[in-house]
Amino acid sequence: MSAEPRRIRLDLAYDGTGFAGWQLQPGVRTVQGDLEAALSRLQGERPVRIRGAGRTDAGVHARAQVADCEIETELDDDDIGYALRRILPVDLRPCRVRTVSKDFHARNSARSKTYAYHLDVSAAGDPFRARYALHQPRPLDRDALEEALNRLPGRRDWSGFVGTLNGLRNTVRELTAVSVSTPSDSELVLRFTADGFLYHMVRNLVGTLLEVGLGRREPDHVLHVLARRDRTLGGPTAAPHGLFLESVLYDEDLCGGADDRE
Amino acid sequence: MSAEPRRIRLDLAYDGTGFAGWQLQPGVRTVQGDLEAALSRLQGERPVRIRGAGRTDAGVHARAQVADCEIETELDDDDIGYALRRILPVDLRPCRVRTVSKDFHARNSARSKTYAYHLDVSAAGDPFRARYALHQPRPLDRDALEEALNRLPGRRDWSGFVGTLNGLRNTVRELTAVSVSTPSDSELVLRFTADGFLYHMVRNLVGTLLEVGLGRREPDHVLHVLARRDRTLGGPTAAPHGLFLESVLYDEDLCGGADDRE
Does the pLDDT value for residue B31 go beyond 50? Predict the structure, then answer.
């Protein structure tokens, strides 16, 4: 019953409502904690350490998070997925499991990530989206919001939109794509693709874009915040429950994070 | 500050997860209970009694439930809606409030109702639909399921699909329309429109249709259950969380229950 250790990649979807975020913390339910406990059952309770592409915050959701770990089990990839789906609760779903190169690293190998922020712009609020979208019933100037959004892409220092700067760190990232979509009259979705994101970066950007959409700031204000590198100039951090990690793309692995979802 | 009493119609959406159903019961949270408490605040805490078009069961959702009540308030219809949305939690949303004829009765005036049953047919299960669709990962024979579904419409005695028959009651209803739709590869929605529904009728029909879809029964089995009027011949009662009251239509009132919803 001995098996060679191998590295597997897990593509995951989860409803962040019931988790204190991705990262393992004692005494609270985390995505990493649930996954490691489930995976360790597949190799005789020996501990497993997983690495995630992005450490989503408490309340933030994922449609296609990617994680990897080393595991020793006789089970093939499909059976690992099947077993994990049986063990894990309905709010944390492994969508796909595959054996990858020993060099694969969910975070370091990632070429880009896309986050989507969902707004419910209906007057009454949709009770079925209350956990998955920020309710924003006040009229938004979508042109102004989009104008501000389109100012953002580029390789920049994002200090002005970072939550906390504890310790030295590189705050330069390349935001490669942004978009606004309206799946229905009551939904507005803002998407951000970058080679990496900083702590609270998307939620701080959204909070400031909403200030623009509500007419409290001019579209150029986002550039002002960037130039001044002063977080206090931006809008409030948007609530976590509107945010989704939508996909993670890899160079080596042509099967990107989101290809087999829908 | 005195106002003439008037009758109002409320169009409501709610996530049934947190409710022990529509009907008022002591000691538990119900839709009727929450609404009556909120409405009574609008007329100086004098009690309000509301009537719902359909008494949805524990865990069943509504996209466009209709209720009515008499109320004495200086507030106009829009302001009542606004006030209720401020008072009520995010899982119970009044979408529209309008003054109606004294003769309007949410249940008795209803011409037809439509219920939708949502299935998540993906292998892994979508964590964002776990509260709103029954996960059914085993392959379904959609042709057989649809064949059985299409046998159902008509004016019939539905005793074979009724949960309990406590006391004498008329078990004849006219099922006027049924349909299957697949909004995406992973979603299957069954719709039923009738002049009225009996206790657990839709969920019992769905449970039996799934037996057909899973190949355990022939499509004609639904007619056998109807002819024998024997509930024990049908499949299990499908779980409540896949069921939505989608719309209620009225003759007198041309503004049907679902017209202003998405």
Answer: yes
Pick from A110, A86, A105: nearest CA to A256: A110
Mutate to test the interface with B, among A60, A126, A186 (most CBs of B within 10 A): A126
Q: At which residue do the structure tokens 């865990």 appear? A: B59
Last residue of a domain, one of A88, A108, A128: A108
A1 within domain boundaries = no
Residue A259 in contact with partner chain B when CB distance is under 8 A: no
Measured distance CA(A148)–CA(B98) in Å, rounded = 39
Q: Are A201 and A161 in contact (CB under 8 A)?
A: yes
Phi, psi (degrees; rounded to nearest 5) at A11: -100, 125
pLDDT at A201: 96
Distance from CA of A109 to the nearest CA of B (A): 25
What pTM was estimated for this model as a whole? 0.89
Q: Count of domains in chain A?
A: 2
Amino acid letter, A223 = L
Packed helices B31-41 and B77-87: angle between N→C axes, nearest 10 degrees: 120
Q: Which two tokens stand for residue B141?
A: 């024979």
What's the complex ipTM? 0.85
Burial class of residue B154 in the structure, from the number of CB atoms within 10 Å of its CB (0-12 exposed, 13-18 middle, 19+ buried):
exposed
Q: Check if the beta carbon of residue B142 is closer than 8 Å to that of residue B180.
A: yes
Task: Render pLDDT for B218-247 as a digit per residue (tens, 0 to 9).
Answer: 999 999 999 999 999 999 999 999 999 999
Size of interface A-B (CB pairs under 8 A): 64
Chain A residues 128-147 with CB within 8 Å of chain B: 128, 130, 132, 135
Query: Do the strands B61-71 and B243-250 form a parallel or antiparallel pair, or are they unpaired?
Result: parallel
| A16 inside 8 A of chain B by CB | no
Residues B207, B140 within the same domain: yes
Question: What residue numbers bound the domain in which B26 lies?
Answer: 6-108
Residues in B closer than 8 angstroms to A61, CB to CB, are 128
Provide the Cα torsion A59, A60, A63, A64; round to 10°: -120
Do A95 and A19 belong to one domain?
A: yes
Q: Which residues of A80-96 are buried (b: 16+ CB within 10 A; e: fewer)?
A: bbbbbbebbebbbbbbb
Instruction: Compute the distance between CA of residue A51 and CA of residue B24 in angstroms, rounded to an integer.
Output: 49
Interval B170-174 mean pLDDT: 94
Alpha helical stretches, state H, B141-244:
142-150, 201-213, 221-228
- Alpha-carbon distance of A260 to B233, in angstroms, equals 40
Asked if B60 and B52 touch (Cβ cutoff 8 Å), the reply is: no
Residue spans of chain A under pLDDT 70: 1-2, 165-168, 252-262
What's the farthest any 2 CA atoms get from each other in chain A? 65
Q: Give SS3 for B171.
A: coil
